[in-house]
Specification:
single chain; 96 residues
């Protein structure tokens, strides 16, 4: 009989496998995206998926260092998204 810790680990491992599908699909959208804004949104989503995968890896392995990795990726993703938004705003100019 599996204990509660074993179920959480097994569920987290299953979720890691489930997250592989959106990871691949989002990466394809980033490569093929029709516009530059679509590619930036895909990159932001890849960041979110990476944070979720790092957090789930922390649960599966029991190591807290992966939470630090998840936090670092989230911070860099946020700063990168803000920088890319500013870039798109400057590139588009004032079209009002």
């Amino acid at each position: 009989m599996m204990g509660q810790d074993g179920l959480v680990t097994l569920g987290s491992f299953g979720l890691l496998l489930v997250l592989c599908a959106p990871l691949v699909l989002t990466f394809l959208r980033m490569l093929r995206g029709p516009g530059i804004a679509d590619r930036f949104v895909a990159l932001d989503m890849l960041t979110g998926i990476a944070v979720a995968m790092a957090a789930l890896t922390s649960v599966v392995t029991g190591r807290r260092e992966f939470l630090d990795v998840a936090f670092g990726v989230a911070v860099f993703g946020f700063v990168g998204t803000c920088a890319l938004a500013a870039f798109l705003e400057r590139k588009g100019g004032n079209k009002q």
